[in-house]
Specification:
By secondary structure, the chain is α+β, with helices and mostly antiparallel strands. It has one domain. Helices cover 22% and strands 17% of the residues. The strands form 2 sheets. A 3-stranded mixed β-sheet has the order 1-2-3, with no helix packed on it. The chain has a two-stranded antiparallel sheet with strand order 4-5. It starts with 11 loop residues before the first helix and ends with a strand.
């Protein structure tokens, strides 16, 4: 694509302001950042998956939760901006034979309800979340980690192979 020099360039403050005013949360299953303390995660439970392909992020979070690793959802306090072109947000799923490589591996690994396992790895499954507290003072913002009061869980219904989401 050729750069159009008649349009203004955005500076960082413009991008932040535009994202906050016009942006919207994409999906609760899309996870952009992982902060993991050394030796605090059971990496030996993670198969050889492809980073940035469908399911990787959810598998990591679900595995953390299954192994009693604390998970903090920073969605409300950390701004993540994604840029895309005319192909859209799901362009990486198109025109590639490896689109579902992770889900194929995960579904072979998890015999009992692999979709439910991935659903447990959504951001709203975290035991903790971050919130802004106080007011902005001297260009600083205070963020607090709190225990989430409602956690998304999947529960079994009496019908065979059916799951129902609850908050």
């Amino acid at each position: 694509m050729n750069w159009d020099n008649t349009k203004p360039l955005y500076i960082p403050n413009d991008v932040t302001e535009t994202a906050r005013n016009k942006g919207k949360l994409f999906l609760v299953k899309g996870i952009d950042y992982f902060f993991i303390a050394r030796n605090a995660f059971p990496w030996n439970h993670i198969p050889d998956l492809v980073v940035a392909r469908f399911g990787y992020d959810n598998f990591v979070v679900a595995t953390a939760l299954a192994n009693n690793v604390s998970v903090v959802d920073a969605t409300d306090t950390l701004l993540a901006v994604h840029q895309t072109d005319m192909e859209g947000n799901f362009a990486g799923r198109n025109n590639t034979r490896h689109t579902h490589i992770n889900t194929d591996i995960i579904f072979n690994l998890i015999e009992n309800e692999p979709r439910s396992y991935l659903h447990r790895g959504y951001t709203n499954s975290a035991q903790y979340k971050t919130i802004h507290v106080g007011s902005k003072l001297n260009d600083t913002v205070t963020v607090m980690v709190i225990r989430r009061t409602k956690i998304f869980k999947l529960r079994r219904t009496k019908q065979k192979n059916k799951t129902k989401s609850t908050a």
